[in-house]
Design goal:
The chain is an alpha+beta fold. The chain has helices spanning 2-5, 56-123, 128-162, 191-201, 203-224, 271-337, 343-377, and strands at residues 10-19, 25-28, 31-34, 39-52, 229-242, 253-263. The chain has a single domain (2-8, 54-229, 269-384), classed as Outer membrane efflux proteins (OEP) (Up-down Bundle). The protein is 63% helix and 15% strand. A four-stranded antiparallel beta sheet has the order 1-4-5-6, with no helix packed on it.
Length: 386
């Protein structure tokens, strides 16, 4: 609106009271003549409207319009960034919850195994070495539980911070860590499709594009300063010239006038030329910044895309490995009870299952986050909450 206001006329009131301490004296034919009066009072109303300013008003309007659009896109980009960080923290809480459960499960398995070995040792069917191994396995799972508890607390605090929730308040996340399909039909798109999506939807690229347009309009505005300025003005003047300070309405004389002015500074020390050259440099700098940002956009999409493909394949492999480790643990326990396997086999199976389950949970988290990152890099993260 401020840019549009320059197209409107300016309406001005002015009131002036003057006390002439010394009046001008003219000497003519040996006689002195005093010109003017002791006091002067003046009230005026003036209406002025620039008719032509070299296009600077229009260029300034375009500048402000593009800057407003740029700020709007920056706000959208910031919104997507905050949403991404919040989702990452949210899934971080679910991951830490699952990791804590896994650590506690490993602790309980090691404890149950120790109790079983102690019974076998008392019965004489297990050696002292088996007992020591079971105790060592049980002791090694306790630090993992404490680390998982600390990670759970920190993940919750991070989510509270992003959601602007006081750290002293409680936060309960009912969801569990499962595979999510955030891409939906976009999962069948190829890399070139995602690059095209990002070119159309990335808020930061749009913001820079509007800034380039604004800077280009600024270059035109500096060029328009070389043109003359044509303005029309009209005024009504009431003036009183009296010898005393007390003035009345009858003392005023009214006058009216309309004027058309052409103002064209022919030389200003080269300032306009320097301003124009500086504006051209700013335009080139902004275009270079846009090109660099656009190249980074392509790199972001490629990185997010290949990370998503990698995590998709890893998730399937990790799930299969976890299921196999779980079955191996079940068989090891059965065979150990029957005396067909050693305590070392059971410990190895427990360790393998715990490790594979942790890796599988991380794989689910990485898969979900890689989808979110891919949507963010293409500017389509807003599709989640639409």
């Amino acid at each position: 609106w401020k840019a549009l206001s320059y197209f409107l006329p300016t309406f001005t009131y002015q009131g002036v009271a003057t006390n002439n301490l010394e009046l001008p004296v003219f000497v003519f034919m040996g006689q002195k003549f005093i010109v003017g009066t002791k006091y002067s009072f003046q009230h005026s109303l003036e209406l002025s409207l620039p008719l032509f300013t070299g296009g600077t008003r229009w260029f300034n309007y375009n500048i402000q319009k593009n800057l407003r659009k740029s700020l709007s896109e920056e706000l959208k980009g910031k919104e997507e960034e905050v949403v991404l960080q919040s989702l990452q923290a949210y899934y971080g809480v679910m991951l830490s919850t699952s990791m804590l459960k896994t650590a506690e499960e490993a602790f309980n398995l090691a404890k149950a195994n120790l109790e079983q070995v102690e019974k076998f040792y008392e019965a004489g069917t297990a050696t002292g070495l088996d007992l020591q191994r079971a105790k060592a396995q049980y002791a090694s799972t306790q630090p993992a539980v404490e680390r998982a508890k600390s990670g759970f607390i920190l993940a919750n605090q991070q989510l509270k911070f992003l959601l602007n929730i006081p750290s002293s308040d409680s936060l309960v996340v009912d969801d569990s860590l499962v595979v999510k399909d955030f891409l939906n039909e976009l999962a069948f798109s190829n890399l070139d499709d995602f690059k095209a999506f990002s070119e159309k939807n990335r808020a930061d690229i749009k913001a820079l594009d509007y800034q380039v347009k604004a800077i280009s309009e600024g270059e035109k505005a500096t060029l328009g300063k070389f043109a003359p300025t044509i303005a029309i003005s009209a005024n009504v003047l009431h003036q009183a010239q009296i010898e005393y300070a007390s003035v009345s309405a009858n003392d005023y004389i009214r006058s009216k006038g309309v004027s058309l002015a052409l103002i064209w500074p022919l030389f200003e020390g080269g300032r306009k030329l320097i301003d124009y050259q500086e504006s051209k440099l700013r335009t080139e700098q902004m275009k270079l910044l846009y090109e660099q940002a656009d190249k980074k956009r392509v790199l972001d999409v490629e990185q997010s895309y290949f990370t998503f493909i990698e995590n998709s394949k890893n998730k399937e492999s990790l799930e299969e490995a976890m299921n196999m480790a779980k079955e191996s643990l079940r068989l090891s326990n059965l065979l150990y009870v029957e005396g067909m396997s050693t305590q070392l086999d059971v410990l190895n199976a427990q360790f393998a299952y715990s490790q594979n389950k942790v890796e599988y949970l991380k794989g689910i988290y990485d898969f979900n986050i890689s989808q979110l990152n891919l949507l963010y890099s293409t500017g389509l993260l807003k599709n989640i909450w639409k």
